[in-house]
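Hey L., structure's done. Input below.
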Amino acid sequence: MASQDTAELFAQIVQRVRVLDPVHSRKWFEDLTLVRLDAGILEVSCPDEAAAQFLEDHCLGVFTQAAQNVTGHLVGVRFVSRQANGSTVAAADAPGVRLHPDYTFESFVVGPCNRLAHASCVAVSHAPGTTYNPLFLYGTVGLGKTHLLHAVCHGLRKEAPGCIIQFLSCEEFVNRFITAIEQGSLQEFQSQFRSVDALVIDDVQFLSEREQSQEEFFHTFNAIYNNHRQIVLTADCAPGEIPAIEERLISRFKWGLVARLDPPSYETRVAIVQKKAHLRGIEISDEVAEYIAGKVTANIRELEGALTIIYATAQAAGEPITIQLAQQALGRQESEMRKSITITEIIDAVTRFYDVRLADLQSKKRSQSIALPRQVCMYLARNLTRHSLEEIGGHLGGRDHSTVLHAYTKIDELRRTDARTRGQIDQLIATIKPE
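Output:
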């Protein structure tokens, strides 16, 4: 096959991917190149390790489907980084560190709502362990905390390629700690976490009511801090507002800088929509960006979701994105539909769908067969009603707001990354929402 034919073939595959999966399509897909198509394997070269990991995690299935559709043959897909040979940029990171290629400082929209948080993260990435240590970011869901954590790690990789980074959610930290106890490998766990150059933990409120995990985290914190290494933490609330957490931990969280992220203003929301559109290679007018920013006010994730709906509608209709199409795609009945749905209706739908009892959802049972439906209830209630986190938790066994927020974050991530979960959520929403 001639090289020109190969390039045209790959261009068709990428275009097919954009149609099949508008959610994960990105403008930087233009920088992907086909290395070879040999022995049934299509090898794709990516700009860097983060891009390769993103495609492996989110797009392997859709690229495989697109390649098979275009070539007419049963082929597999492999993603490789152009840094793979001769570069050690990511080699020193702890196992499992996977950074999102979109979540960089360059793609973060700075406004009055997040200026201090952004500036402090930039400072930390340039001088880890010396400025703002620890750095504690807090704010409600969808305001950019996780984006900034990824950006810090990207910055550290760039500024200090040899540094060892541990970046994970607090839930994962707790789960690894529990596993280490069960397997008798606590010393190995402690060595892994206490010898890093940067410890970056998302949703530290998950330590709430976990006394043994708090004890371990306390000693981990002290070891890293005393070694003059960097600690960056996020939570949904200020350190002193995290429920059921030891005072000595709260005190340490306040040692450095505590920065709050607030909901974005209208002007910042417009800029965010335009930035998100650019990252995906979507052409939208200022009028459309302003319409989305005016209609969606809660958080950045909902702005991104609205943009996805509009883009998918335009793709399906084969039309350009106009203000009329945007209005049609988002609809005018969304707010009324949100008001009319009750938590009871959501619980009824979930219990039928997963074949579980209400009593089990409200119990303290934590098996996967019960925990997942319970978390789905919380996610749907957060999305489809106007109830507070506390009110949602009250309907499901008196859970506190941090538990509900954790459930929302987990299911939101699963919906974006796991096709089976996405299908279940979409089916439940279709069942719950009135015609």
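The CA atoms of residues 147 and 387 lie 26 Å apart. The beta strands are 33-38, 41-46, 76-81, 135-138, 165-169, 198-202, 230-235, 257-260.

-- N.
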